[in-house]
User: What shape does this take?
Amino acid sequence: MKILIIEDEKDIRETIAEFLSNEGYICESAGDYDTAEEKLYLYRYNVVILDITLPGGNGLELLKELKKDHHETGVLIVSAKNSLDDKIAGLDLGADDYIAKPFHLAELNSRIKALIRRQFFKGADSIDFNEVKILPDNKEVFVLDNPIELTKKEFDLLLYFITNKNRVLTKEALAEHMWGDNIDQADNFDFLYTHIKNLRKKIVHAGGKDYLKTVYGMGYKFSDH
Amino acid sequence: MKLLRKTNISYLVLAIPLFAVGAIFLFMHLRSVIDEDVNEELYVDKLRIVRQIESGEPPPQLYPLIEVNKTDVSKTIQYQFSDTVMLDPVENEYDPFRQLYSVAQINDSYYEIIVRTPLLDTEDLYSAIGVSIGALLIILLAGILIINHFISKSIWKPFYKNLEKLKGFSLNDNGSLEIEPSSIHEFRELNQVIGDLTDRVTHDYMMQKEFTENASHELQTPLTIILSKLEMAIGKGDLNPEQASRIVPAYEAARRLSKLNQALLLLTKIENNQYSERNEISINELVKKTIEANKEKIEALNIIVNYQAENEVTLNINPSLAEMLVNNLTGNAIKHNLKENGHIWIEISDHQLIIKNTGTASEIERETMFQRFKKDNPSSPSLGLGLSIIKKICELNDFEISYSHQNDIHKLQIIFELPSKNLQ
Assistant: This one.
């Protein structure tokens, strides 16, 4: 899977590239409009991460060009403006998803994976983690081939964990993924603990191993080692 | 005190002593003119009597107007004018008279001749002058009042119109003040100054808003860098406890900073009217959706939610703001609820939304609770901006919001349409 990161801030670009490389993607990056335009002309990418404010041009213009020639490329818009107009304009022009700065890398990862699933596997793909199997399109989970009943939130949580397996996820990132970026509301993580407890119980009850590890003081990790 | 009234009173204060002085002067002048005239008359009368006696006729007698007596002693006084009061035998009352006393030698005899003429009663003169002057005063003042009334109608009209416009002037409306022109120099100058002032204030305000927004935007990028770098460090999971104890608090603080920045940006955007798109939104649907979205939180805290809607309330409002409003209200009702056996009552009735929840009394004063950064517990990680956002959304849409606390129940009431507006 090839990803092009179009972002003018060097530090952000490099961090995203490092993070996504660790996830097994082949990453290239562009820091301005012209470089990005050239790369898009020369190569094909599966996913483009596009910052709207770019030196040398507007990211939305780039999106227009891109969607003309490469229908199959998934586009994830990143904007510091977090403005509704940008979001609507971006999605209207054919972007697949939108994420506002500052974002959690885990969230970015989950969005990219979801985008790839939709784009290339039409959701028919299954996600496996040892004895745990997820069918994202049907919202079904199997442990040792036995279906388990999860609430919508528990399902989201499990999918998020497996998408970001072997990484420590902070409770802030988890809460934000679950309940959105509700300003001034996220100071209570009790609900999160309850969901994690229930999810763990259900997997273990169905015969799965306890992969959900608490990393003291930091958050949680879904890992088998 | 109105300017007109003030000038009217000034006129009155000035006019009364002026007219009084005028009346005194008039009286004295009239008096001297009359006296002179009367003296002349009396002198002529005396001459007529002297001639009559010289021609051999008997001296005339007409008391009290004419008295002629023979006298033996020649006196030094030729004649003397004086005022006197005499009993008029016909009217049988004392009246003022002007008299001329003279002694004349006619045909070797000495005659004492006194001629009198009745004087106009001084009191009558006083009252005549007083009445005329008073009438004049009243006519003058009435004239001033009428003229001022018309002046205020025509000349002051643009002034009052501008005053009304200034009263309604708000920086948030984005419109510049359109001032009524006036032909009066002073008003023109005032209008000029007001125009310049409002333009400058509007400009400064815009600049400041723009600055806040730009500053918030600019902060997002470094915050994204900080957060993603820290997240990378945490995500690897290979931090030892000492490193973790340094990095995790830094991450949490940066997260908080980012949220604060977003909240301030949101407030600025609402103020900047960037949520101008409006749709018909059903508050009932929105409330139901919000309760559903918060179901897990509500269940986890064992809160019982009562939802009652008397009728369907739809508002013409920005969808994002409507969602934010209901979400924040519900979130607050959950957050500030009792630890157990909590209740939330949500009522929708004729153009109003009431959200009540059980909870201990807040330490914040009711007046300040909608202010930014006010929070119940200063050490709580909450930003203290939730209610400010609610208030700002209400202000933008002309909703009236009020808070009360009674018997451990918090009550937030939002009236969507003010009754007075319906009347207009």
